[in-house]
Amino acid sequence: MWTSSRVLIFPLQVHISLAGDKHMRITWITNDGSSPSIVEYGTSPGKYSAISQGESTKYSYLLYSSGKIHHTVIGPLQENTTYFYRCGGGGLEFQLKTPPSKFPVTFAVAGDLGQTGWTKSTLDHIDQCKYDVHLLPGDLSYADCFQYRWDSFGQLVQPLASSRPWMVTQGNHEKERILFLEDGFVSYNSRWKMPFAESGSTSNLYYSFDVAGVHIIMLGSYAPYDEHSDQYSWLKADLLKVDRKKTPWLVVLFHVPWYNSNRAHQGEGDDMMASMEPLLYAAGADLVFTGHVHAYERTKRVYNGKSDPCGAVHITIGDGGNREGLAHRYKQPPPEWSIFREASFGHGELKMVNTTHAFWSWHRNDDDESVRSDQVWITSLIGSGCNTRGSHEMRRILMTS
Ligand SMILES: *[C@@H]1O[C@H](CO)[C@@H](O)[C@H](O)[C@H]1NC(C)=O
Ligand SMILES: *[C@@H]1O[C@H](CO)[C@@H](O)[C@H](O)[C@H]1NC(C)=O
Ligand SMILES: [Fe+2]
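Above: query sequence and fe (ii) ion SMILES. Below: predicted holo structure tokens.
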């Protein structure tokens, strides 16, 4: 017989995220306020050789009170290894795999997820691919102030998000600012805590982390980004710390695209682009992923509105499956920098093969199958001739501006 207290400590909405070198943060929710924030874990099922104590939080939003939200960091963990874990001292056992510490490493990418049948199809296809980390450039649950939708989203993504780290940044649908409530991100920040403190940031809305040879920067389209902002100073400092010998790839994510030839959301990224694109260019960013526009688009390497061999490849991938549907209308003719664009739901896979080569593919949801629809080898800026100039100029621009 299950006693009611047994049922109450059942961990809900389990998801994991990278939390500094060799560490992982486990997040879950319980309805029972006395349930402890402990995670027991080990490398064989049912045998827990280590235990970590974490912290918990909760929040209220109008008439809604959240459950107890637990955040517990475990580690140090071995690379590329399966761990079995249990939350709160009971309930189901989960398993996770840590990313490798060297190439190859694979990322799944899908933004603007929501929680529709289309979302389910995208998640099923991601589940079928072999990947190490999920990257999400904003717009998670589409809760839009209805807090119970955060809970149903947490349950929907748990099978994937409890087994591979989900690294997310905020979109407009995370912003739930209403009268009298100053912090528009209270639900998002309470539930989706990311390693901002671990990366020297003071805000959960922007942070960075390393996976194998890739430095990934998550920026906030909805945090101040002008030259006097904290985000701008943090980005400069973070770019100066990047060691391209250790992390030859530099990848950036945020929500609102800078290069977008869809008619939806034209111009919304212009101010952030004017402020931050020179920094990313000076640092030699290889790839930029965004969402917001519910379609897929890939560009040439671009800078300052034109193709440029030393700029970044921009990929808009806001096609995860949300309830607002697809953005079908495009500007005609396409700009010279736009290589591939299509309004279909789907996901992307980015496999960093080695220091210089990555294979990108976009998979359209087509009934039960995921169909690989766009694919390209991307070579890094390392050793391209841009790099030397980039690092030289980077120091000049980053130090003086
Ligand atoms: C990770 O582990 C798998 C299976 O154990 C192995 O095939 C793969 O080569 C490893 N990857 C790295 C980068 O070490
Ligand atoms: C990197 O991978 C690419 C594609 O597989 C290959 O052509 C290239 O030789 C590799 N480079 C190194 C240094 O191994
Ligand atoms: Fe959006």
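Residues 353-354, 356-357 surround 2-acetamido-2-deoxy-beta-D-glucopyranose (ligand 2) (CB under 6 Å).
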